[in-house]
């Protein structure tokens, strides 16, 4: 039986784990703009507050670690408690998934129970599926992960589905946005901190799903605004920016910067050579099939709930992203987009 949130918990209070990251920060910012009380657990609260980049008040940062169950429970139950816990934490650089991912969700589950049945909110991934045999994903698609990371994510979602507290999984493609530093866009496709000189394609002319973080955050907030319409364990797909040709993201970057920057291929061959030595190349190589095979997210359930999916035109989203990365000048228009 799914536990309903205690009536003593603040109905629009949320705890965000991972608010110093791209997706967690975007969700926290959107909830704050929508009038939620947001607290955020992080390792250094003062530093996180000083580095808050979004165009809204910072959340109430409290010091703690997502691997420390007592700290997560304290953050979720302090005062009147919270109705929602956003679980947006992942090991950095794809490292240590096997030892960190599942213990972290166990801590979040413990905190949700202690808070009287808070709904756990999870940004879902496409790693749960075999890219070669899953061209379209909806909430009924069997999870047939072939990689270690994917199997861990499947186990994580199974824990949520079997828990007695409610959950919401909103699955999306590759993140990009003005504050999405830990993304393929910012770490591989375009070099941050300088004018755009080239665009690195992860897989030329292969369709791919991207998620602009402000749009994704708006979808999360919209769903959390209608808890009475959500299933106890709701799974929703975010269509995002579907690059149907595998060239639309490149072309948008070219339009925004106003020049035909050269396209380069990501050196997967180099990852394969270095993978036996471990580290990032080995971890990243597991993700290669996600880029080499199209996987589109079917958002019919999201549209059923919200009426429409939040969607920024691609060129505007790319302009805001490049401005946030320091690749183009922060014109008033670009700055407004970057901080939205």
From TrEMBL:
It comes from Sphingomonas panacis. Residues 18-135 form the NAD(P)-binding domain. GO terms for cellular component: cytoplasm. One of its GO terms (molecular function) is aldehyde dehydrogenase (NAD+) activity. InterPro entries: NAD(P)-bd_dom (IPR016040), NAD(P)-bd_dom_sf (IPR036291), NAD(P)-dependent_oxidoreduct (IPR051783). This is Epimerase. It comes from the Bacteria. It holds the Pfam family NAD_binding_10.
């Amino acid at each position: 039986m799914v536990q309903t949130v205690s009536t003593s918990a603040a109905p629009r209070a949320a705890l965000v784990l991972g608010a110093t990251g791209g997706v967690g920060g975007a969700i926290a910012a959107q909830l704050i703009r929508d009038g939620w009380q947001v607290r955020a657990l992080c390792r250094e609260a003062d530093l996180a507050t000083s580095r808050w980049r979004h165009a809204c008040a910072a959340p109430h940062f409290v010091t703690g670690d997502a691997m420390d169950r007592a700290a997560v429970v304290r953050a979720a139950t302090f005062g009147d408690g919270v109705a929602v816990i956003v679980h947006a934490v992942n090991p950095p650089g794809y490292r240590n998934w096997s030892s960190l991912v599942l213990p972290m969700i166990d801590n979040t589950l413990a905190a949700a129970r202690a808070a009287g049945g808070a709904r756990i909110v999870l940004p879902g991934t496409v790693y749960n599926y075999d890219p070669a045999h899953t061209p379209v994903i909806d909430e009924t698609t069997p999870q047939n992960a072939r990689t270690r990371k994917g199997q861990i994510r499947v186990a994580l979602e199974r824990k949520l589905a079997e828990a007695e507290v409610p959950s919401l999984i909103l699955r999306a493609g590759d993140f990009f946005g003005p504050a999405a530093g830990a993304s393929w866009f910012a770490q591989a496709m375009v070099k941050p901190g300088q004018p755009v000189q080239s665009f690195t394609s992860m897989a030329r002319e292969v369709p791919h799903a991207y998620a602009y973080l402000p749009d994704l955050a708006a979808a999360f907030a919209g769903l959390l605004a209608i808890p009475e319409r959500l299933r106890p364990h709701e799974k929703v797909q975010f269509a995002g920016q579907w690059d149907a040709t595998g060239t639309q993201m490149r072309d948008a970057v070219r339009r925004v910067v106003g020049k035909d920057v050269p396209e380069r291929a990501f050196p997967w061959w180099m990852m394969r050579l270095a993978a036996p030595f471990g580290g990032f190349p080995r971890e990243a190589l597991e993700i290669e099939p996600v880029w080499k095979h199209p996987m589109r997210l079917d958002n019919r359930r999201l549209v059923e709930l919200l009426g429409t999916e939040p969607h920024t035109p691609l060129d505007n989203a790319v302009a805001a992203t490049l401005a946030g990365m320091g690749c183009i000048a922060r014109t008033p228009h670009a700055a407004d987009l970057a901080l939205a």
